[in-house]
Amino acid sequence: MLLYVNFPSWIRPEVVSFLPVRWYSVMYIFAFITAYIVFRKLCKQGQLGYMDEEKSTSLFIYVIVGLILGARIVSCLIYDKSANYWTHPWLMFWPFNSAGKFIGLPGMSYHGGVIGGCLLGYIFCKKNNYRFTDVADVLMISISLGYTFGRIGNFINGELWGRCTGSSYGMIFPNAPSFSTNIEWVRECADRAGITYNIGDYVNLPRHPSQLYEAFFEGIVLFLILYYIARPQIKKHGRGLSSGMYFLGYGLFRFIIEYFREPDEQMGFIIKLGKEWDPPALFKSLLNISMGQILCFIMICIGLFLIIRSTRLEPTVFSTKKSKKR
């Protein structure tokens, strides 16, 4: 009896087979549109009433550019261990490989996107005389739901899969690496999943569909928390409350889900305090920490700081006019 599911064979990364356009790119567009719609709705509800549609569009252009730049640069400089981008930085945004084939921009760092988006968002606010903390509080609620589409795009691409599991909710991703059944843990996992094999065979083991875990918790659940819990409190508490809850919520959800997601192959675990840490494709200890978890811990600390700080500030007052900076 099979105790896993196969990656849907009808799913293809390309939107149209003869065009180099992938669903992952389309999902980014869906994410930006969704975030913009939510942002404008919140503005019309009076939570950032002094920002009109024209300025909202300009803000999103700044944030989107910052997000893409930050996500790509951090992915290339931190997660790529070849050092090729350090010596050839122009290749970061070159969408063709050495053979001239269009490959897009493979590799985007979420945390880099946050840094880039916040930086250009801050520049926009300074340039247009908006208070960044006001804008960020509303913007964080908006982007959380859009994030869901990004992880769905990862799933469609069959990338960023989770760690191996013999559980019934495991999924076999066709592009995931196979393991030799000469290894004991591989045989144990295959046996639990009901996979038949001969000793010495290489088998593609079921894995956690961690992309869907992230889409649900870091996207949908976090949005509901921010929209129905943080949003009503924006006017009752000081600036930074919803921003803090976003950083705290995302950081906490992602930190936990990282235990189900396989670390980047080129990096593995950054902190190896568990008795066993090899292979990274198998969970063995809570003390083995990935780069993603380190960055999420920083997010958690920032979130707690912003939440505590918001309780010590005067309640945020919004009007239909620009609020004075203070």
Summarize the structure.
Helix content is 52%, strand content 5%. It has 9 helices and 6 strands; from the N terminus they run E-H-H-H-H-H-E-E-H-E-H-H-E-E-H.
Structure report:
The protein is built from nine helices and six strands. Helix 5 runs antiparallel to helix 7. The C terminus is likely disordered. The strands form three sheets. The chain has a two-stranded parallel ribbon. It has a two-stranded antiparallel ribbon with strand order 3-4. It has a two-stranded antiparallel ribbon with strand order 5-6. It has one domain. The longest helix is centred in the first third of the chain and has 27 residues. Helix content is 52%, strand content 5%. It is mainly α and 326 residues long.
Question: Key terms for this structure?
Answer:
326 residues; mainly alpha; two-stranded antiparallel sheet; 9 helices; 5% strand; disordered C terminus
Instruction: Note the beta-strand portion.
Output: 5-15%
Number of strands: 6
Q: In which range does the helix fraction lie?
A: 40-55%
Mean pLDDT level: 88
- Class from secondary-structure proportions: mainly alpha
Tell me the radius of gyration: 22 Å
Distance between the termini: 65 Å
Biggest sheet strand order reads 1-2
SSE string = EHHHHHEEHEHHEEH
Discrete helix count? 9
